[in-house]
Amino acid sequence: MEKGKGRITVLYAIEESIRKFAHVIAVVVGIDVEVVGADLKRIAGTGRYAEGDGKSIEDEGEVYRHALKTGRPVCIDNPKNDPICFNCKNREGCEEKLTLCSPILRDGEALGVIGIICFTEQDKRTILKNRNNYGAFLSMMADLIAAKAEDYNHITETTQTLDVLRQVMDVHAEGMFVFGADGSVTYANAHARKELGIEGPGDTVSVQLIPTGNTVGEAEEYELHFGEHHLVIMGQVVDLKKDDPRFSRVMLFETQTDFTRKMSSLTSSAAGEGLDAILGMSPAIRRLKEQVMAITTSSSTVLISGKSGTGKEMFARAIHHESDRREQPFVAINCGAIPDTLLESELFGYTSGAFTGASPGGRIGKFELAHKGVLFLDEISSMPLYLQVKLLRVLQERKVERLGANKPIDVDIRVIAATNDDLSELISKNMFRSDLYYRLNVIPLDIPPLCDRPEDIDLLAEYFLAKYSGRFNKRFRRIEGSTMDRLRGYAWPGNVREFENIIEFMVNMMPADGIIGDSLLPPRIIDTPQTCTCGCCVSETPVLPLKEVEKHVIAEAVKRFGSDTKGKRTAATALGIGVATLYRKIREYGIE
User: What is the pTM of this model?
Assistant: First the structure.
């Protein structure tokens, strides 16, 4: 509120109270009373001024104008002859015998004036006889009006602040309850009201909040009962150290579904979602994308195989994003990154006191967090055998039991597993259960290594060059043709991850002219023999189809290193492809 505008309007806001003050003063002194604002409009009056509320006294208010200007009380016992009244337009017709007024001040600013006006000599003598007492009384009443105005402003500002805070709390993504000492909800924000079907923010309701004892990080699990509503929520309750029994505790919460959806974004290292995030136009990538689209409405288990760095988690996320579970959680866990002793509790959760060192509140496992959504088990080959048995049971029965509990919990999840190992070989070595393999391998997806799809090199280079030149605020102009030839001819054992790291390095080292040449390539790429691609060197040897060349090279490698498991692994390494890819090629070409 603007300062001048506030000065004029604040007294009008408490107009009813001012009328009561004027009436009290008139009763005490037995003389007419008038209160005007800083704009010289009458707010309240008694006697002959009682009917003039809202009237402007601009033409006859010289005494009041003087009090407003000086900020001091004024007493005039001979209005027509007093210098203050010389400019009054109503001077000649003035009937007043005495005017005693006091400004209404707030922080040194005049809000208005309260005045006592005598129209008879007897009233005048009464005032003059006790001028100081009447003046002090009038100033005290002016202070009371000013205090009333200050209270009104304070209440208004507090109300506005509370209204803003209420709006902030209503747009908060989490639900909020404020509990009274008796357990009733004295305030619920919009999110909480929506969950419970409460109409207005001021409606007082009773809810039953039962802690289950389970936790995920700092969040605790509660069962919330309200009428026919039964919710499982995750949140925190904080005691409010206030004497007011209406405000005893506050709770911020999310429904378990919203909580797990948020948690899923924190358990994944993959950037981007959906098939659009997977770059590639090679036949192999197009075929994989078609397979993903074919299983969007399915809940069958998927096993993704591929070398490290090929983007297995990106495909898992794409399956989730394109499916009818896209609005539900995607929870990822790397089975090879968590010690065996902790992996079981991470997957299945535990109850209070389940084992030494367990959290006193228990913990919800990843299976429960992924309820209605997708659970991605990366590096599934690293899972110990005893856990493989429990995983098989969950896949068969769709129920989990927390450590330390004997009550099964229903879970509706789609499991996507990934591995960069040959599970068939691990089965032969009794390191992986065949029954679990068959349960996981319902829908197999084999991600080809980058060396098997050289057609995608140019597209990937274009994307990563734009990404990192923008991130590092560098001006990229072009990459030399010979440099691209070397990138196309390299085997890329680290696959797309290695390729991205090389591009990031080259953009970091890129000179000011924005041209990337061979000098920026790592030695391992420069030292790789290159095949002439200029088209000038004509050979008398007939050109064979690539499939024939590939079949011949694979057959020679298997013949040289042996057709047993060890020999095939050595052959795959020598060829720069994955074991799974080698097995697929052997089947495809019918190599004995």
Answer: 0.56
